[in-house]
Amino acid sequence: MTDFVQTLKSTGGNYSLMSTWESGQQCDLTSATTKVFSHGGITGGPFTDGETINFTSGGSGLMIGVATTTQIMLESLTGTINSSDTATGATSGASVVISDAGNSASVVLECDAFICTDTGGADISGWTTGASNYITIKPAAGAEHGGVVGAGFVYKSTNNNAVTLDIGQAYTQLIGIEVRNAAALGAIALYITATTSANVFVDKCIAEVENPNAVADGALRVARSVDTVIRNSLFINKDATYGVAAMLDQRSAGIASIYNSNFIGGVQSVDWVSAVTTCSYPIIDCIFVGPVETVVTTHDGSTGYNAFSSTGAFGANQKTIVTTFGVDFGDYANDDYVPVAGGNLAGFGTDLSATFTDDITGATR
Amino acid sequence: MPTLLIKVNTNNVPDSPGRWKAGEVVAAVEDGHVFGGAEVPEAGNFYHITITNKTLAELQEYLQSWSHSPTTTQVSAVGNRRLIQVVSDMVSATGKNAFTQVGVQALLDGINTDYPTANAVYDSHNNTGFRFNVTVPLAGRDELVSRVDDAARNMQYARRRWYINGAGMTFLANNGGVVSGTAAQVVGYLRDGLLD
Question: What's the total number of domains in chain A?
Answer without folding.
Answer: 2
